[in-house]
Each structure stands twice: as C-alpha cells, then as structure tokens.
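Newbie here. two chains, one complex. Structure please?
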Amino acid sequence: MSDAPSTPRSFQEIILRLQSYWAAQGCAVLQPYDMEVGAGTFHPATTLRSLGTKPWAAAYVQPSRRPTDGRYGENPNRLQHYYQYQVIIKPSPPDLQALYLGSLQAIGIDLGLHDIRFVEDDWESPTLGAWGLGWEVWCDGMEVSQFTYFQQVGGHDCKPVSGELTYGLERLAMYVMGIDHVMDMPFNDPASPIPLKYGDIFRQSEEEYSRHNFDGADTEMLFRHFEAAEKECARLLAFEPEDPKSGKRIIMAHPAYDQTIKASHLFNLLDARGVISVTERQAYIGRVRALAKQCADAFRQTEAGADQ
Amino acid sequence: MPDLLIELFSEEIPARMQARAREDLRRLVTDGLVEAGLTYASAGAFSTPRRLVLSVEGLTGESRPVREERKGPSVSAPAQAVEGFLRSTGLTPEQLERRADKKGETFYAVVEKPGRQASEIVAEVLEAVIRTFPWPKSMRWGSGTLRWVRPLQSIVCLLSDETGAHVVPLTVDGIVAGNVTEGHRFMGNGRFVVNGFDDYAVKLKRAKVVLDSAEREAAIWQGAQNLAFASGMEVVADPGLLAEVAGLVEWPVPLMGRIGEAFLSLPPEVLQTSMKEHQKFFSVRNPKTGRIEGFVTVANIEAADGGEVILKGNQKVLAARLSDAKFFWENDLRVAKAGMGEWVEGLKSVTFQAKLGSQAERIERIAALAREIAPLVGADADDTERAARIAKLDLRSAMVGEFPELQGVMGRYYALEAGEKASIADAARDHWRPKGESDSVPTEPVSVAVALADKIDTLAGFWAIDEKPTGSKDPYALRRAALGVIRLVLGNGVRSSLVVLFDGHLNRVLAEAAERHAAEARKHGGDYASATGTALTESDGRMVSTNAVDLLSFFHDRLKVYLKDQGIRHDIIDACLAMPGNDDLTLLVKRAEALAAVMKTEDGANLIQGYKRAANILSQAEAKDGVEYSFGADPKFAETDEERALFAALDQAEAAIAPAMAQEDFGTAMAAMAALRAPIDAFFTTVQVNSDNAIVRRNRLNLLHRIRAICSGVADLTRIEG
C-alpha cells in the first residue's frame, strides 16, 4: 500500500491526523471534557449519548487519569495522566472496522507491512454499569486500540448500538514513531524553533502527581468529597422536571452526571492511596455504579436521551 | 442430488468459540434438514476468524410428500366435539372424510403434505439456526435486532446441481443471502462469486484464506518447526495454543525471533507464560542449553518485507513484557533472599474472606492443621509446619500478581532462594495440587500434609460460616477441594479419622472467628457476647460437632461420585459406608473394592441372596419373639447333613475371616464369605428354619445369626440391591 501517508514526526501530528481523519468521516470533533476522568468513555459524549435512539457521531481527545498508574515519570510506558482518542458512532456503521483501519493508515501504518489483528476482548466498566463486545486491536503483537460495540450503559440496553473506538495515544504514537520511552517522544515537530518532548511537558507533573496520588492527597477530605458528590448527584436528580423560572422542563442529568464523574475520580484517588480494602472496593464501585445508573435513567427522560 | 454451501461471514469470531460454533452449525442445520424430510450424504463444517462454513453433499432435491390420517369423533357426536377436532386439524367441515365402521360413521381428517423444495427448507432452517445460534455470548450491532457473536456481514447460501448454482432466497434481518464472498482482509482481492464448495475453497485459497483450521494448524506447526530446526532449536508443543492461534489467522505466516540475552536468566515457566498469555507466542528451546531462547509468532499476512517489520514490532512488545517480568523477578528475589518477611507482613492485610480473616490468619490455621496431619503421612512435623507457613507467600510476589497461574511454581523458586529445604520448597509448588481432574496428586510427605491441610481448612472454613455449595452454585470450588482431599488420601493410602480432623479444625476456625469478632467489638467499645455453643452429634462412638458430620457426609457424596467414575456401584459404596470407621476413606475404599470384586463372581452375587434370606428370616423372628438369637448355635441339634455341612463351613470361614479382618485383608475375607454360598444355598433348599421343634428352631435361628455375624465384617450386605 504505497499510498500510505508518511510517518508522523510528533505526538501532536498523530492527534491532528486522527482529528482530520474522523472529521472527514463526518464525526463532530469535540473537545475534551473539562473534568478529571479515568477514560474517554466517561465523557458525557460517550456515556450519555450512547443512550436513546438519536444518531450521534463524535470524536475527541480525552486527557485521562489513572492515579494508581503513576510511576514518577520513570516508567517508559506508564503514566498517571495520559491521552485517549475516542470515537463514538451511533448506530455503529456496518463498515466501522474498515473506517478504523483507514485511521491507522492515516497515521502512517502501512497495512501491507504490519500485522493487524482483532483479538477478542469483552469490555466492561463496573463503575458505569456498562458492557460491550469487541476486540483489542493488535498491531504486530501490540495492543493499539479497543474496539467495542456497546450493549448496555448505565444499566440500559443500547438500542441502537454505538460503536466505540479508543486509541491509547502515547503507546500508539510511540510505536508508530519508534520511540522507546514516552518522555523522549517529540510532542511538537522536532524541527520547531522550540522543540518540546513529552518529558519537557509532563515529566515534572508526573512526579508531582505520583507523590500526590500515593502519599499527598488528604484521604479524609477525599472521603468527605466522595460523600458530598454522591449526595449532590441524588439531590440534583430529585428536582421536579418543571423549572419554575424558565417554565421549561429541565432535568439536570448532565450536572448530576458531573457528580458521578467526581465520585469516580475520588474513588480512584482513594484506591491509589491504599485506604480502600478489597471488600470495601466492591462496595465503592457499586456506589458509583448506582449514581451512573440514576444519571442514565434521568438522561433517558431528556430530549437528547429519549427514544424517538 | 444438489450440494449445499453455507457461509456466514462476520467480523472476527473469538478464537476459543470457533470449534464449537462450526460443530453447532453442522449439527443444527443437518438436524433441521432431516427433520423437514430431506436426507443428505455427508456434511463438513469449517471456520476461520471471519467465517463459519457448512458444506452438505448429496442433499435430496425435495422432501417426500407426507400423508397424515387422524381419526375423529363419531358423526353423531355433539357439535362441540366436532368443532374441537376441526380446530386441532385446521380443516373445514367439508374437508373431513366420513367412513363407515361397526359403530356407524366416523369423521376422518386426511392431510396430504406435498413434498417441499430443498431451497424452501434450507432457507427456513438456516434462518432459524442463525436466529437461535447457541453462542456463549452474543451481541447486537447498528440498528438491528439480530444477535450474532460479532456483526454478521454477509451470507452465502447456494444449492448447486447439474443445472448450475442457485442462490437460496433468504433474508435475515436485512442481510440478503447471495453467492458472493471475500477473501483475506488485507491480501484478498475484493469480492468474488462462488458456485459451489469446491469452487469456493479454491477461490478462497487464491484469496489467501486457508479454510480448514486443521490445515492451518498443520501449516503453523510445520512452519514453526522448520524455522526452529533451521537454527538448531525446537518448538515447545502446546496444542491449546496451536488451536487458538489457528483461530486468529486466515493465512498463517510463522516468524521466529530470539529472546533478548538479558531475559534468558528468567525461569522458563515465566518466559513461556508471559509469551503465551500476552503474545500468543510459541516457546522455542535450545536443546544444547535446555533454555527457552526464542519464540515463534504467527502473523496473518505475507508482508512485503518478508515480515521484518512485524517481527521487529513483536520483539519490541516482548521486550517490554519481559522487562516487566524481569523487574518483578528481581524484586521478588530481593524479598526472597531477605527471608520473605515482607510477604509475611503483606499477607496480614489481604482478606481471605470477610468472616474467615486474613490470608495470614488462614496460614496460621493451615500450619497448625498440617502439623497435626504430618505424622499421619510420615512427614516431619517441623518441616511440614514450616512448609505450610511459606507455601502461600508467593501470593504477595509481584510475579504471581501478574501471572496468577504461576502461583506455586514461583513459590518454589523463592523458597529455594530463601534457603529453605528442597522438600519444603517443593511443598510450595505442590500443595496446590491436584489442580484438576487430570492433574496427579503429590506424593512427597511434606507436600501431601500441606496439601491436605490447605484444602481441609478451606472446606472447614466455609462450613463454619455456612457457605456450603448448593445445587450448581459452588463459588469457592469446594467440591473440587473435597475431591482433592479424597484423591490425596487414597493416592497416598493415608489412614486417619477425617471427622476428628474436621472437628478439631472447625473448632479452631470458630474459636478464631470469635476472637476476631470480640477484638472488633472491643475496638469499637461495644460489648461482645460470646458465641453460643456448638451442636454435637455422635459419630462412630465419638461426640463431634454436627457440622463435622455434615462435612463428612459431603465428602461421602463426593466419594460416591468419584468411585462411580471408577466403576463401583453406588449400593456397594452405601454398604461400606454403613460400616464403622467410614471417615477413614482408605479403609472405606478397601472395603468397597473387595466387595465390588467379589460381586463380580457368581458365588459373590449369590451369597448376597443367601445372606439376605438369612438376615430376613432372622430379623422377622427376632422381632416376633422379642429376643436376639445370639446364643451360639450347637451342631448337636443339627438334623440334616446340609445343616451339619453349614456348621463346618462356618467354622472354616470364621477361621479364615478373623485373621484376614485383623489384617484388613478384605479380599480374603470376602472370598471366604463367598465360599459359604453353596452350603448356605443347600441349607435353605433342604432345611425348614421354623421347625415345630422349638429347640431345633432356636438353634437354627442362632445359626442364621452366625451367618449374619460372619458376613457383616466387610460391609452391610443388606444394602446391596437386587
């Protein structure tokens, strides 16, 4: 396949190519959600919009946080803050696999030279009450994406089904550009007047957050905030739909869902701090799932989430 | 005679589901065709990651016409009855036939079902099979309602005969069956028309798809061996991995690479597990060093550069994986060399089960029990206790955290590094065994003792907190644990009273749980009421907790299943279970085997009849007379030769049985009993037990009592059926 584009020169070039590729496929290119999330799936553009019958197509970069994965910037592949590229299309188009392979070509992967495989991987998010079937996609033995057909989100059957693609951007970019340590990866073009590597931008913050996640964060406060988010979520959903001020029917599904996102991240931090026991862990996951489910229920009552 | 070709083309089917799926497709479709009145000569099913294929040869072109006749009510029957008959047959009154018989006229329904075209039947059957296919997990996609393992993209359904190939008209959820398919995702050259199975297979191969998984497996294995052989190496056989890899590729291209020098010092199990689990690589061994030094990966594409980029990529991924493994190994070795204290501490904070405390507490219990068991299996008590304390420490190691299937294997390495004796280190590896039905049982005494203690602790623990298996629910795999104990005991000829072990250990578990509860209550400043007493039951003359007896009966149930698999009838087992000492499984099985063996002889089977007759007459008389006829029979009251012969035979049998029983030589004892069969039969044929002479009658009943006493040493023969 000689018409494959050239190898990208920087991390951001890969992101830009994905953005234009998926824009050309008709996706709304959204921006990251402005809250701390564990994965691109948490963005309401995926979680909430995969509910109901309204067609949807979106693509976006989502900065994601996994507090327990902090390695003080030393591990070549592990970061507590990293980027996912997320594509969500409802209903899943019949040629989604081909579209996905096109995106790999767009970022410089020659399909005639590489071994691309779809290997069974059933996806489940216990905190979102969501699951789907699909694959992890391998390129020469390396997992470069997750490919999932959503079956259920927030306890609701997905009808129609959304197709979700998640690219682990750093890992994919490192592979495409042949970089061994994430911190050595060019973030902008190496020929720029001010060339910046991934490490120039993130090494220090990885150190700071690693210390914060494992030792610094005030667990007493985190527990308190978790409770508060949990309460606020329920309180917001308890309002009467009729808003007296505007006279409109307004269900506060998104604001309530923000509290779910918060609770989920607070739980992840508490987990990293090692203060949640194995048995308690399940209970906390169950509490977040209950919130996600209530938000999904509420969203289904709104215009964007209803069946048409 | 047309041939049928079906291809269900989809997105990638999980490798582990393909074998079952192609077999289900073959069975469901052919069953459906036969059910509908067609016959066929042969059928073969195939699968690749993207397709399930069925080829049926020599199908009949149409089903035979069927004529069904049903007799209905009499013509003079009430209207209701006639209406009912019409409803059930779906006919109108005009369509019913009237036939005269002896009682008058009767309605008959005659339904002629004409033969149906094969294409009509195939369409019907295939649609039903697709809609109800038994995938272990299925999904919806897009806006459709159809469920398939992954999105179903196209269907080929062709009947071909001498007139050509005809597409079977069929539409499933918007997918219209046709005669077009496609080859390899990257190497195929677009879609193409097929006109029958042979054409299909040839064109597929041209489009870089090997249809038959057996052919792919053979190609992979041959290719891998050739690559290894060329560099003086050998591939480590792994049939499970071979089948899986064959399900991941349509066009297998094996590529061999070398493991980096830095990783060659890792234990071979680590290299193999990491390569297999994460990367689906075959391990390649260097016969000169005996080490795993290379790997074979199987690509799905003939790359333009001969696979150089692919191999380099795989090598890089492997290096990252093995760097992790090496990091774990080196960290673990540091802890091991320091005596594994860090892991001992760590297990204190790992909950085994909320009500059963931490792993550390559990290990303490196992150590105490293992020490008790040690003398029963000829193990050194101190070594055994030590082994129990270190056996599970690898659960805290980084390596086992990453690869749970290496637990035990790593424990042994680490124990050796920590300077433990070989027998203790081996116990770390072997106390988990037997891991399944096909796994053998350990025989080294220390390993046996710890393995028994580990499993009995699990069982006693869950019995103590009343989490017993129910029906199909056995979340803690307690049935497997009990079977493990049974196999360990029998395999090593262990002699012990299980109920005593159970009872002691249940008390240990309960006492600890009470202590934990009390400590918890004290911590929260509350009062703690001590646990109520344990219910006791008599078992074999001992008072033990009811729970211990319940656990024993769970064991007996498992034992029955186990022995039944070995071909020993359930009533034979029941007869032996009725004997004292039935919690000594080795003794119990010795009895059962002896009884089963003698039951296979004619004398043995007939002895049971004679014995039962004696026992029946005796118990009736004892019940009627209110006495026990155990006074000893006297040969001087014997009236017939048969009676006297029985006396002599009993003397002889007794003389043989007593020493045999003392030696637990149940085989000899049973043989001596079987020898009684002829004299007992002769006695019953010629002698009337209930004689008018009271003295003679009493003497004969006492004689029967002697038969019963002599023959009840090995098993309770009254429980034998038939």
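Moderator note: The longest helix of chain A spans residues 278-300. The mean pLDDT of chain A is 94. Thread marked as resolved.
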